[in-house]
Amino acid sequence: MLRRYERVLLFSDKQMVIFDIGSAYTKYGYANEATPRGMVRTETICSETKQIRKIYDYRDTEDLYQLLVEFFHCLFFRYVVITPKDARIMILESCLTPSQFRETLAKVLFRHFEIGSLTFLSSHLATISTLGTNTALVLDVGYKEATLIPIYEGVPILKAWQALPLAGEAVHMHLMKCLKEISPNVNITEKLVEDIKVRTCFVTTLERSIKLGTEDAPKPPPMVAYHGVKNIIIPGEVREKAFEILWERDNDNLSIPTMILDAILKCPIDTRRTLAENIILIGGTTMAKGFVSRLKSELLALLKSNLYSEKLKIQVFKFHTAPSKPNCTAWLGGAIFGTVDLRLRCITKENFLKSNRVPDWTSLVDNQRQDLAACEL
Known about the structure:
Blueprint: H1 4-12, E1 17-21, E2 25-30, E3 38-41, E4 43-45, E5 52-54, H2 61-80, E6 88-93, H3 99-112, E7 117-122, H4 123-128, E8 136-141, E9 146-152, E10 155-156, E11 162-164, H5 168-182, H6 190-200, H7 206-211, E12 224-227, E13 231-234, H8 236-241, H9 256-266, H10 272-276, E14 279-282, H11 291-303, H12 329-337, E15 346-348, H13 349-355, H14 364-376
Parallel strand pairs: 1-6, 6-7, 8-14
Antiparallel strand pairs: 1-2, 2-3, 4-5, 7-15, 8-9, 9-10, 9-11, 12-13
């Protein structure tokens, strides 16, 4: 049995380090492993204010640069425990990640920590590698937003992408408002709300949801006592309604179920049935009790409504079960890709310091340059 420092020395020079930087949590570990080594909050102590700040709540590029330096210093030397110089790093990112963030991240890793190579990989593409299929409709419901990208035969259908600010943060804000009304004398923090949500709340069924707030409203579930720093009584009505904000349609008639149907409608007609039968859910919010069954019921109900009955002729929706927890599926996909030599998608330190830019793999300009270089060789 190898000790911890012996395992680090053994693996650090051979394996790629995988980081999945989410809005709320960051997963880290090595390629070719089944699970992340650990998970930490995507936040750090600001060197100026000495207060804890979330990485994605940056003011400008300089502020983001400093936050990323502090954050990765902690990751490298406290959690992953490797020397970052000349290390091989893979970053899992959303296709909708701002260019400012990825370019600043590359500067931090190459210029400050002097890593050897960096690979950016779409979290949606990484996800399907865990299924052994090239076609899937990937719905990521994390902390900040829900994003959806259909992938057919390994190619993302970018014209059909969907995104809505309906995720964990929206649930937290709604639950925090309710808890402050129940216990006005208790300091309700977001960490406390998250723990209460995970331990006591659930997604109710569509049948009960329709009746909530009406004269025929069903009897609410029992209240429970949350034993933390202070004891808080959580009413059954609050437990049941915590996730309802994810299913309520806004003024544009949009919600998480409509995201899926709208995305399928924007895809070529010959791909729609295949995508509907290959849905995979990732992100921590999808792990809520009752989420999957509620989503299925909402989709089938919408198909019968006037909005979609004439547009979509789909009868069945099928969901994949990934070989990992939904919040770690993208990381696992990155760990699989990390075992493959992806030289065309790898940014070396020499190339970055020479060009001072991060190639955009969705741009024809960068792809053409690669093709020409390959032809010359």
